[in-house]
Amino acid sequence: MEVASPDTARSSRDQIAMVDEGRRPSSVGKAKRNDSNPWRRLNRGPSKRTSWNRSLSIRGRESIIFVGCLDLRTKPKQRGGRKKLKQKKAPEQLYDFSKEKAYFEEVDAFELLEESPSPNRFTWKMGTDYECIEHDLSAILGRWRRSKLFLGRCMAWPLSKIMETIPAPSGYTTSVGSFNHGVAYSLSQIRETSSFELSESKSNSATQKSTREPHSEVASNFSFDPRGVSSRSVNKSLIGDLRADSVLSSFSALSIKQKATTTDKCEGEIALSENKACKVVEAGGMKNLVTLPRESCDGESLAAFEQLLMVCKQSSPIKLSEVFLNYCDASSIIKLGEGTYGEAFRAGETVCKVVPIDGDLVVNGEVQKKSEEVLEEVLLSLTLNSLREQHKNSEKLNSCGSFIETKDFRVCQGLYDTNLIRAWEDWDAKNNSENDHPCAFPEDQRYIVFVLADGGKDLENFVLLNFNEARSLLVQVTAALAVAEVACEFEHRDLHWGNILLRRGGATMVDFTLEGKKKSVSTFGLSVSIIDFTLSRISTGEAVLFLNLSSDPELFKGPKWNIQFETYRRMKEVTGECWEESFPKTNVLWLMYLVDILDKKKIYERSIKDERNLRSFKRRLHNFESAKDTLSDPFLSELLDD
Ligand SMILES: Nc1ncnc2c1ncn2[C@@H]1O[C@H](COP(=O)(O)OP(=O)(O)OP(=O)(O)O)[C@@H](O)[C@H]1O
C-alpha cells in the first residue's frame, strides 16, 4: 500500500492507491521498495537488482537497413515455436566496396576537431519553450547507415566467400575434408605488412593456433562443422581492390555473430571479437575458443564511439560536471528518478539522464550498454524529435509534441561527479534506491548523457484528480502513438506507467497533425510526455531500429496476475517474435494496459457511468489494430477538435 503524495493541484482529500509491485525489468528501478511484495522477496539477491529484472543489455539493439533487396539484419536465433522470418536473399554477387572504402578513408582522414567545436562554442537554437541544440539527423543517419552497410555486407557473405577473401601465402592450400573433429581457422592480421596469414588448427577441445606472427592479432575466428566438407582452396585474392585490413577493421568494429553457410553445405558461426575475446563458437558439437589480444578489442567500439562523439560535436569525452554546469549550479542538482540503465537528474530546466556505457563493470545487475546500441537509441530519439520539429512547421503531414524532447547528448568520462553523488544519496535516503551506488564507477568509465526536457512526474507517482484528466491522458497518448505509427511505424513496446510523464499547468488544448489533418485534444490542464524508447521499434525510412526482445526470455516470465507482464506476453504472441517487423497492434496492447491501470490502479474522482464507459472502451480496444484506428473510437474522439 502506498500513500500517494499530493501533486500541485491535488484535491483536498488524500488519495490512497494500491501500487502494482510486479514490474518489467526496466521499471523496477522506478518503484519504491516494498517488502510486502512476495515476488520481490523471492528474488532478493546480493545485487539490488535481481536476475528477473535484468533487461536490455543482454539483448542489444538491432537494425535492418534497406538497401534494394538486401536485408542486413543479424539473423535471430531460431527457437521452437518461433515464426520463420521471411529471409531475403543474401547477395549472390560479390559486393563492390569502392564506396565504403572511400567512406572509411574519409573517416580516417576526418579531423574531429574541425567538426567538433568545444561545448562552449555551440550555437544554440531557440525553441518555443526552451533552448535545444540542432542535430543534423540525416547526416548522423547517413554516417551510421554507411558504416552499418559496410559491416552488413561483409557479414552477409557466406563462409566460403569469406574464406576466399583470405589471401594466403602464394600457393597455400588447405584441405579440411578428411577431418572428423573440430576445425578452426584463425585469421591473423599482420598490420605491418597489411597481409594475412591463415593458420589452421585441429583440436577436439579448444583452438590452438599453429602459427602466429609476433605482431599479428587475431581478428576473427571461423569454426564450422567439417562433416561433409570436401576440400577448399584458399589462395584466392581479395575482392576488388579493397584492402584486407579494411575488411578486418570492419569485422572488429562491431560485434556481430552470424550464421554462415558454406557452399559445401556445412554450417558454422563466425564469431567476432567482443571486448577482450572472441566468442566461444559451437558447431557440429564442437566448441572452439580463441582469446584475442587486448589491442584488437579497442577498435571494436571505436566506430560507434566516434560517431557518438560526432553526434555530440565533441572531439573527446568531457567530465560529467561540465555537462551539468551548462544548465545549472552544481549545488542545485537533484535526482528525479532511476531506471535500470539511467539515473535522471534535474539540471535547471532540463533533465539529464546519465547512462554508463562501454564499461566492464556490471551496473544494477546489468551489462553496460555499448556505444553502438546507444547510437541507435540516439537515432531513434532524434527521429521522434523530428516529429516535434515538424510540429512547429504546420505544413507537415504528421506531427506531435508528446514524445519527450531530447535536447542534446553528451559523451562523458571519469568518476561520477561529487554533486551527482550527493544528489543520488539524498534521493536514496528518501526513496531507497534499487541502483548501485555510483561511487563504484572507475576513473575511465564512459557515460552518455541524454539532455531531455523535463516531462514532470511519472503516472505511477502522479495523482490524477478526475475522470477528465484520465480520459485526456488516454487521448494524448493514443494521438502521439498514432502520429508516430503513421510517420515512422513507431511502436513503443514498453509503455508502462513509469514511462508516461505528466505535468499540470500547460495549455488547455494540444495540437497534432495526423495524415495532414490538424486536430486538438482537450488537456484539462494536463500535458503528457512519453519517455524511454529502449524497447521501441521505429523505421527511419532507411532503416528499421528494433530490439530483439526474445533475447531476454525473462521479460516474458513475470507473474501471471501482473498486467504489465501480461502485455509483454501478448506482444510476443502478436509479433510471433518477429520483433523487426511492424505490428502497430502492440501500441493497442499498451493502451489496454493503460486503461487497466486507470481502472484498477489509480484513484481519482469518477462516476459509475465513467467507469462503465472506460470498461466498454477497453472491450472495444480488442477490435483495433493500431493506435490510429483506436483514435476513431467515440470515447477518445469526443475530446478531439478538428
Ligand atoms: N525527461 C524526464 N523528465 C522527468 N523525469 C524523467 C525524465 N526522464 C526520466 N525521468 C525519470 O527517471 C526515471 C527513469 O528514466 P528512464 O525510464 O528513461 O530510465 P531507463 O534507465 O531508461 O529506464 P528503464 O529501466 O525503463 O530502461 C523515469 O521513470 C522518471 O521518473
What would you call the shape?
A: globular
Low-confidence stretches: 1-47, 49-59, 68-95, 103-130, 153-283, 286-302
SS content category: alpha+beta
| Rg, alpha carbons | 26 Å
The N- and C-terminal alpha carbons lie at a distance of: 42 Å
What is the CATH homologous superfamily assignment of the largest domain?
Transferase(Phosphotransferase) domain 1
CATH class of the largest domain: Mainly Alpha
Q: CATH topology of the largest domain, anyone?
A: Transferase(Phosphotransferase), domain 1
Number of domains: 2
Helix amount: 25-40%
Known CATH architecture of the largest domain: Orthogonal Bundle
Number of helices: 18
Number of strands: 26
Name the assembly state.
Answer: single chain
Bound molecules: adenosine-5'-triphosphate
Catalytic activity: L-threonyl-[protein] + ATP = O-phospho-L-threonyl-[protein] + ADP + H(+); L-seryl-[protein] + ATP = O-phospho-L-seryl-[protein] + ADP + H(+)
Subcellular location: Chromosome; Cytoplasm
Pfam families: Haspin_kinase
InterPro entries: GSG2_C, Kinase-like_dom_sf, Prot_kinase_dom
